[in-house]
Design brief:
heterotetramer; A: about 20% helix; B: mainly alpha; Cytochrome Bc1 Complex, Chain C; Cytochrome Bc1 Complex, Chain D, domain 2; two-stranded antiparallel sheet
Chain lengths: ~180, ~475, ~180, ~475
């Protein structure tokens, strides 16, 4: 029962056939199993339009010229988990029916930023990032201004949409996720 | 070979002796007459790997708590791309794995491969078979639908009938005195952590033994009947004329591929039975186990009352021991099944018994309806018969009798009872069965009003 | 780098020492790890008095001489899972303030039994088990009468306690769990 | 030996060659000078096995959903017997495993055991180290408390800064655009299924290599400096005079036992930090990573703005590659660290850098308080100074400055700023920093009312 040292006893032609057959079958199995599993794993994460409009609250709740933290109502879906979590955001009423809705995560590594009304600035508590009331970087390591939400006003109620990045001139730069 | 590949292989060979390792594993010679039947072991391994893989992915979204288990599975099926397909692979794959593992065991039995020198391979293999059955038992609860919940209630009750330790076993399985949050947690941890660890540990041992000892040969020619002193020599001679494992691997790959195609087809086209979320307070539900436990469930008919433990414990125990110890009590030298008639006949008998019981389970009549439910068919009867049919339903007769394929087959099938028994006889029998037929197990219905009794007997007598 | 065939080159005395040391340390490790893990796994399942009194409902809801299905209120605890599941049971008002509370699981293999009022019997749908209104086995495979709950009446409300088994004479036989 | 045992061993030997297997594994000879340092590998394995075991048991009760994760962990700690202890073993065991795996890596580096013929062992070992770190990263989220949630938000943000694939990586890690239900599901499945499968697969390879090639010798005597052609002969000579693995196993067992005692002591006496349940809407929380990721978190200070990716991606990538490829670019023949000064100095430098950053992380000042919070100490100040202190708090100065150990160290520590700067200078600086000091990174506070500015400057000038 000692191992039989018979490497190379398979004729090269047969060996090539075996290699080809195994490769073909292996590739077919990998494809049949791999494609659905990859989709199963990755597609829900990469889905574009999962988050529809979030109800932030009546416009009247946000005084002109001021910035305040708001909690958007969770979305209710037909199946589990049924409710999305509540979403916090900063709402700036810029007057004339214009708003800026800021994402609460610092653009550096995601620490929650705090709005400091007396100072008129957003502070990140992790690495000293400071943003002005329009979300521009004043100091510290953040690479870009605060991210923002699309918004719309319908029947006096403010809604938040997708998240986007802005550049240093506060112009639209990219969607927060591709 | 490309010179670069040769260089890499040389580098590896110098450090790890890869050439010898490969020889020992991939280029080892197999005995002559290694057949397609010899692919069943690798087919089982392939299916187990596939179950592991699909299970890993399902675990990304599944939540093992009574509040969310059913919901999260619905979410997988309805919201996650390929969710139905991936769950289908895992669901149908479970049954297919049990079938293939069992066929592998059968192949080894028929070829006498459990004999010297492979006694331990057989023992480990039988344990692997039991572990695979436990995967079925634990996985079954996870969807937390009615079927899952009630089948588990029955399963833990059956475990609870074990002598001496039954009560402890019952509670430790459940994690308490009922099937609930802790049961689901336990079954999930067992299904995805404990059992896989045991399974792969044993597979490592099982496969290492096969690689070391070589595959069990087809019992033909000089290898059909063997004594120990000749074995090593004859096996080596046979290997000298056989093919290499690498060549056999093509067969393994083809079988794996065909199994996968079949499974993918099932997953893509068959729908998975999924019932309502589990309700422990529902008293109308009729539990049924998964098909691979039918034989146990049907066996219970044969051993009522105090004998229940024979069906739930002693027969299964005897069966497991008979399998486990087979190589130690079957001392015949024949490897071909015809040269060891006792073992073969015993196995055939056991197999037939399991087969018949499984068939009975698969073809059992539809469960009795809720008491008092009156069907369309009944409503169409003439008034006198309709009244009798209503009594039949109201008195829950279908709890023990089958009528036109519905009910429980504890007593005689009544579909054509009128052809056997007259109205008057039926009336007397229903009123007091044991007075008419000594030893009748039906309880007396003496309290039934005469009017209802007449209607019932008339209805039954008309069934021809 | 070939394996060195040096079995038995360790002197027997040293071998005994190694075996003794490994056994002692192994046993100590197994005990330190094993005892807490065994308790962690088994004790919650074996706990005696986890289930206290369940509120079944006002006595007035259960007409004398009749059997009806009741849902006991879940118990509320201080930590997760906070609520026990609802419990279903059959309540028989025997008159004179006496009750019998039946467990819904058949004593054969646990299928839920159905109370059939016109027939005055409990039927199990699995293997033809039949019980009379006092839970006695009338037919089929069940090995003993229906299990029962302890009960008490306080301020007109019926409570269910621990589950117990009864013998053929309907006397207390054992607790449903030791 | 008892005759019965001898018979059993003979039976096994005839079938499976157990004698040779044992010789190859248990009685194999080790080179001379195999030390207590050589137990670190088996100590790591022991801790990994222990983590697996305690993890299996925690999985019986833990539920991986945002609604129940924190609750079920509280339940484990408060209601399950030995719950605190078992979780303690797993929690402190995680840190201990990382320490021991790292020390093992260090031992192998110092003894030059990554060199011929063990290059691949080293590569697999480095991957194992990374896998262990991933266990830390994924396990960290599971309690679903504030610390867990926010550290994971930071962790996925850091992964998201990777060039080209960052956005995809970020979303695939999270299972969507935020840390939520799917993130927890993924991290749990990775922690208990995917990573263990990878870990044990690699451990099998790693340990098989060690058994085949023998343990890396202490670089002393003829084995201190080696060329390939001499290696096999010298190593065999050394083994001829060394002890057997069985004897070394006693050392392994003692180390495992001592580690277990230490761990049991920690689990029994140290309490596990557990914060409130995760709240994604809390804007007052200050995230901090687990200690073994401090170096990365602190490194971020050095690379602000567009350079962030250097700290989050390029430096870690370079570090991993430097480790992985070490045996291929360090071509020196010396095994003793003194005979390969470049590698040793580089490693010492890297180690010092990681050590300093970890120390900085461990001794970082308390996080800034919520804007406007006024301490007891402030209230006790004379009115003029108290007003300045209130302005300091209201304007959120502690977001960038440390004062008496509280705040963020982005700007200078102000605890004794009055000793360095006068009132007037401070007033001018706060109003417009870059006008006073070119290149000052502090944003100007020109809009601050004069009265408040004076109070603030006065308060700061009094800090001596």
């Amino acid at each position: 029962m000692a191992p039989d040292p018979s490497v190379d006893t398979v004729p090269p032609g047969r060996r090539r056939f075996v290699a080809a057959a195994m490769t073909a079958i292996g590739a077919a199995i990998a494809a049949i199993v791999g494609v659905p599993l990859a989709g199963f794993f990755a597609l829900p994460a990469l889905r574009r339009s999962e988050r529809r409009w979030l109800e932030v609250g009546p416009v009247a709740d946000f005084a002109e010229g001021r910035i305040s933290k708001a909690l958007a109502k969770p979305l209710v879906g037909p199946v589990w988990p049924r409710e999305t979590g509540r979403v916090a955001l900063y709402v700036q009423n810029q007057g004339d029916g214009k708003f800026a809705l800021y994402h609460i995560h610092c653009t550096h590594v995601g620490c929650p930023v705090r709005w400091n009304a007396p100072a008129g600035r957003f502070f990140s508590p992790c690495h000293g990032g400071v943003f002005d009331k329009d979300g521009r970087v004043l100091a510290g390591p953040p690479p870009r201004p605060l991210d923002r939400y699309e918004y719309k006003v319908e029947k006096g109620v403010l809604y938040a949409g997708r998240i986007f990045k802005v550049n240093d001139r506060l112009e639209f730069a990219a969607w927060h996720h591709a | 070979m490309a010179p670069r590949l040769t260089a890499v292989l040389g580098w590896l060979q110098e450090r790890l002796g890869t050439r010898e390792q490969l020889t020992r594993f991939l280029f080892r010679r197999l005995p002559v007459g290694t057949t397609w039947w010899h692919t069943l072991g690798s087919a089982a391994l392939f299916l187990i790997l596939l179950q592991t893989l699909t299970g890993f992915f399902l675990a990304f979204y599944y939540v093992p708590s009574p509040e969310h288990a059913w919901d999260s599975l619905t979410y997988i099926q309805q919201e996650i791309p390929f969710g139905r397909f991936v769950r289908g692979l895992h669901y149908w794959g479970a049954s297919l794995t049990i079938v293939v593992v069992f066929l592998h065991l059968l192949r080894v039995f028929v070829m006498g491969a459990y004999k010297y020198p492979r006694e331990l391979s057989w023992v480990v293999g039988v344990v692997l078979f039991l572990v695979v059955m436990l995967f079925g038992f634990t996985g079954y609860l996870l969807p937390w639908d009615q079927k899952a919940y009630w089948a588990t209630v029955v399963g833990t009750h059956i475990a609870g009938t074990a002598p001496f330790v039954g009560d402890y076993l019952w509670r430790i399985l459940q994690g308490g005195v009922e099937v609930g949050t802790r049961t689901l947690g336990r079954f999930y941890a067992a299904h995805v952590l404990i059992l896989p660890a045991v399974l792969y540990g044993l597979i490592l041992v099982h496969v290492s033994m096969v690689v070391y000892q070589g595959i069990g040969p087809t019992p033909r020619g000089p290898l059909a009947r063997l004594r120990r002193q000749d074995y090593a020599r004859l096996y080596e001679e046979s290997k000298g004329r056989g093919e290499t494992f690498l060549e056999h691997l093509v067969r393994d790959a083809v079988v794996a591929f065909v199994l996968l195609l079949a499974l993918a087809w099932m997953a893509a086209t068959w729908s998975i039975p999924m019932e309502e979320v589990a309700d422990p307070t529902d008293t109308q539900y009729v539990p049924r186990p998964e098909w691979y436990f039918y034989f146990l469930f049907e066996l219970l008919w044969q051993f009522p009352g105090k004998w229940t433990v024979v069906a739930t414990f002693w027969i299964p125990l005897a069966g497991v021991l008979a399998l486990l110890l087979l190589p130690f009590y079957d001392r015949t030298s024949g490897r071909s099944p015809l040269t060891r008639p006792v073992a073969s006949a015993g196995a055939a008998l056991a197999l037939a018994a399991v087969g018949v019981l499984t068939y009975q389970g698969a073809t059992a009549p539809a469960p009795p309806r809720e008491g008092g439910a009156v069907t369309q068919e009944t409503k169409a009867l003439p008034p006198a018969l309709a009244k009798g049919a209503a009594v039949y339903e109201a008195q829950g007769c279908s709890a023990c009798h089958v009528l036109k394929g519905t009910g429980t087959a504890a007593g005689p099938d009544l579909t054509r009872v009128g052809a056997r028994r007259a109205d008057a006889w039926l009336r007397r029998f229903i009123k007091d069965p044991s007075a008419v037929q000594s030893g009748a197990s039906m309880p007396p219905y003496g309290e039934l009003p005469d009017e209802e009794l007449q209607a019932l007997a008339g209805y039954l007598a008309a069934l021809k």
